[in-house]
Amino acid sequence: MLSGFQKFLLRGNVVDLAVGVVIGAAFGGVVTAFTKGFLDPIVKLVTGGSVAGAITLRAAAPGVDAIVLDYGSFITAVINFVLTALVIYFLVVTPMNKITERFKRQEKPAVAEPSNEEKLLAEIRDALKNRPL
Question: What is the homologous superfamily of the domain 2-130 according to CATH?
Answer without folding.
Answer: Large-conductance mechanosensitive channel, MscL; domain 1 (1.10.1200.120)
